[in-house]
Amino acid sequence: MLFTAFLVLLLLHALVSKLVDRGILTAPILFTAAGMVTYLFRPDLGELGAHGKDVFLHVAELGLVLLLFSDANRMGLGTLKHVRGLVTRLLSTGMLLTIALGTLLATLILPELSIWEAGILAAILAPTDAGLGQVIVTSPLVPAPVRQALNVEAGLNDGLSVPFLLFFIAMAGAAEASSDARLLGFMWEQLGYGVLLGIAVGGVGGALLGVALKREWMNPSWQPLAVVTLPLLCLLMAEPIGASMFIAAFVAGLAVQVGYQDASKHSVAFSEDWGQLFNLAVFFLFGIITARQWQEITAMHLLYAALSLTVVRMVPVAIALVGAKLQRSTVLFMGWFGPRGLASIVLAMVYLEQKHYLEPNPIVVHTVIATVLLSIFAHGLSAGPGAKRYNAFVASLPVHAPERGS
């Protein structure tokens, strides 16, 4: 019944998608709201049970694995070698300060959390999701330097957040078990095995694809499917060896380009179609879970959510952009458009799956739900009007202003 409801909603959205694109309601808003309404009319669907939770987790994991792989492809090895300017500031100073400030505020607003649990919450909410305000990173209304910086930031910070999350989980687990050996073992399995698996799958797969293409063994129509098998292999092979599938998928997305430079064209095209399907399924299920958990969300959860989307995001961005010679309005614009979406949902599910290592704290989960829900609506509704208003501001700047660069 749940799957049927989602497919009907997907069909209806496809039929009027052009009309929807003209308004301010985004697809994540509609599918999240539809999930919440579905629960109100059929509360029995909210009782996902063990099997339903597994399905939700697998769909979410699949969506993020494809996203991380395609993001790494889209950015490319060349981007990592020459990344500079605004992107460097956002991914280094900005991201580190975001996690630090998020951790500090969590300990003050949610004192029931340990320092490591506060770090877990901050790491889960650190990555941004450009899809929640798609117009910001695609519309020519937003100057190229700004939209490219926000797009690259969103493409890389989800993968960069995973090591921080795993570190805080390991520290929290070690604190409960008082075992440094357990901490080192967990970190090596998740990070070390994840990197090695990504290099192996991406490197070998890219080499094989490169040889097949060079010798004209492969039909062009099979190239997209061949490329997408690589992140799926990372997903399937990670669990048996205890590696992080997300680290593996991101590293594989970089490694595959060594032997097969056309990987980005095919993986991005696939993720924009099928990846979108998985992403919308996640938002639909998120809406159902949110409606079911809403009574557990308190004013403190909502307060942290509001601060996470404003102070925790905007202050680090402002500090990171000191010296970039950007106008104050640009700094505020870039600080505000740091939505929390798919990556935060999946990382929260990853946290919940560590029950064998660490007992999850419901406060973390409820705060993530409140933050993502607020972000879906606040950033989705403000993206279009915000882009138009910012465009008018940029038009008034001198032609030599950094915002008007190419």
Chain-wise SSE layout:
Elements: H1 2-15, H2 17-21, H3 27-41, H4 49-82, H5 86-109, H6 115-124, H7 134-138, H8 144-177, H9 180-214, H10 223-241, H11 245-259, H12 263-293, H13 299-309, H14 311-320, H15 328-336, H16 342-352, H17 362-395
**Number of strand elements:** 0
- Please, how many helices? 17
- Overall shape: it is globular
Helix content: over 70%
Q: State mean pLDDT (0 to 100 scale).
A: 83
Rg (CA only): 21 Å
CATH architecture of the domain at 66-75 and 90-178 and 263-397: Up-down Bundle
DSSP strand content: under 5%
Class by alpha and beta content: mainly alpha
CATH class of the domain at 66-75 and 90-178 and 263-397: Mainly Alpha
Reported for the largest beta sheet, the result is:
none
CATH topology of the domain at 66-75 and 90-178 and 263-397: Na+/H+ antiporter like fold
Low-confidence stretches: none
- Could you state the order of secondary-structure elements as H and E? HHHHHHHHHHHHHHHHH
What is the end-to-end distance?
A: 50 Å
